[in-house]
Design a protein that fits this description.
234 residues; mainly beta; Porin; 1 helix
């Protein structure tokens, strides 16, 4: 009798272990992709406002995945992501057309904010390989570069405006950034043959800059990311 009970207990333990092994799985997913960011608000210069537009960037990193069961998995990762914004071209020309009067034009204007992101996600599978996801994400700012091309225009005679050579301008605003931010990432992923396509929208809960001493204003940095990764089961 004891042998039968012992054998049954061992069999139950083996079945339980196998069931947990099948429903719980760990994996690592290196991934790389693109990001599209756009500041909220407007860029302030004198009495003018310049509108923001979408800015393309780069993202790459590694996520660890824990598959709890057929419906749920949980992940955490570390990624480097470029956020920020591009800006529409801006021109301030003199109202009068007198010789020597000058104006300026800004083109190729962008701001790149580099961050280390640590997302923690819950993933719900609505179909085989297709998951909806949401979570919370910490961001640590490591870079902020503003780049533009400035061109001076001058009236060399009445009604004749001459452009000078465009000058590359670069400003560093790293010290003005909010060092640690919190985002809410939501999105979806689809996986086939261990290849995963992941799309997320990152909702910022905090301002990008710690005060209003920059021309960018009290902006936030919403962001789209799209990545391709490969799942390595552990």
């Amino acid at each position: 009798m004891k042998r039968i009970v012992g054998t049954l207990l061992l069999l139950l333990a083996f079945v339980a272990a196998k069931s947990q092994e099948e429903s719980s799985r760990f994996a690592l997913i290196p991934q790389v992709g693109v990001s599209f960011g756009k500041f909220t608000g407007h860029y302030q210069i004198d009495n003018a406002e310049i509108r923001y537009r979408y800015h393309a960037g780069f993202t790459a990193g590694l996520e660890g995945l824990y598959r709890h069961d057929a419906n749920w998995s949980f992940s955490a990762g570390v990624l480097y992501t470029q956020a920020g914004s591009s800006l529409h071209d801006f021109a301030a020309m003199p109202r009068k057309q007198h010789v020597g009067d000058a104006g300026i034009e800004w083109t190729d204007h962008s701001v790149t904010v580099g961050t280390i992101q640590i997302p923690v996600m819950a993933n719900y599978y609505v179909a085989e390989g297709l998951a909806l996801k949401a979570g919370v994400e910490l961001g640590f700012a490591v870079q902020c570069k503003e780049k533009l091309t400035a061109t001076i225009y001058e009236y060399v005679s009445e009604n004749q405006l001459e452009a000078g050579e465009g000058q590359k301008v670069e400003n560093d605003y790293k010290d003005k950034l909010t060092k640690t931010t919190v985002n809410i990432p939501v999105g979806a992923s689809y996986e086939y043959e261990n290849v995963r396509l992941d799309v997320r929208y990152h909702i910022p809960l905090m301002k990008t800059f710690k005060d209003d001493s920059t021309p960018f204003g009290n902006v936030r940095s919403p962001l789209f990311t799209a990545t391709v990764g490969y799942r390595f089961d552990l």
